Amino acid sequence: MAPIPAPIPTLQALLHALADRPDTTAAEVAAAAGIGRSTASKLLSALATQGRVLRRPGGHQGGRRTPDRWTLITTTDTARDTYAASTALPATPTTQAHDADLSRPAAGRLGAGQLRDLVEACLTQRPGQPLSPTAIAKTLDRSAGAVANALQVLAGQGRVVQAQTNPRRYVIADASDPTAATH
């Protein structure tokens, strides 16, 4: 378990604020705890990694991204007292979720090579259909630039083929078609 990157009083203030305000944004909990928004965001991400808080990813509304919502995972009705005494992770946490979306895992940061695997899987599901980096990015809800970079790496490895140059479109490389790699 990775250590929390903050002094204990800062962590306790954040936990108290989150216990009092379930399903809140990082900015709201930061203001309530009297800490910086950046510090609160980093602490919440670390706590989510440890399974101590639940993250409900924000969506899009009117073309803008809405903030993620955070809820403390508690073991009793006295979560504030529990976390004031100790910041240790309870052995068997249960959630006091306000809606079903809180139980979904967070769409966190991908590890090395995971985006390439996602891009390749997306193209595998659509064999023979040339897709642009933007179309793949929208499907995966990822950055178009990152997807374009992943496609270049995959093309260099021979796992995908650039089917069209302007606009760039890619297809999955077909092992049974020897001419596919020459496009």
Protein model, in words:
The chain has helices spanning 8-20, 26-33, 37-49, 79-85, 114-124, 133-140, 144-156; strands spanning 53-56, 60-61, 64-65, 69-72, 160-165, 168-172. The protein has 183 residues and is an alpha+beta fold. It folds into two domains: 8-103, Winged helix-like DNA-binding domain superfamily/Winged helix DNA-binding domain (Arc Repressor Mutant, subunit A, Orthogonal Bundle); 114-182, Winged helix-like DNA-binding domain superfamily/Winged helix DNA-binding domain (Arc Repressor Mutant, subunit A). The strands form three sheets. The chain has a two-stranded antiparallel ribbon. Strands 2-3 form a two-stranded antiparallel ribbon. The protein is elongated and about 55 Å long. It starts with 7 loop residues before the first helix and ends in an 11-residue tail after the last strand. The model is unreliable at 76-106 and 178-183 (pLDDT under 50).
Second rung of CATH, namely the architecture of the largest domain:
Orthogonal Bundle
The geometry reads as elongated
At the first level of CATH, the class of the largest domain is Mainly Alpha
Radius of gyration: 22 Å
The termini sit apart by 47 Å
The name of the CATH superfamily of the largest domain reads: Winged helix-like DNA-binding domain superfamily/Winged helix DNA-binding domain
CATH names the topology of the largest domain as Arc Repressor Mutant, subunit A
Q: Secondary-structure element sequence?
A: HHHEEEEHHHHEE
The proportion of residues forming helix, as a percent range, comes to 25-40%
Strand content: 5-15%
Unreliable stretches, pLDDT < 50, 5 or more residues?
A: 76-106, 178-183
SS-derived structural category:
alpha+beta
Count up the domains: 2
Oligomer: single chain
- How many E strands? 6
Q: Let me know the largest β-sheet.
A: 2 strands, antiparallel
Strand order of the largest sheet: 1-4
The DSSP helix count reads 7
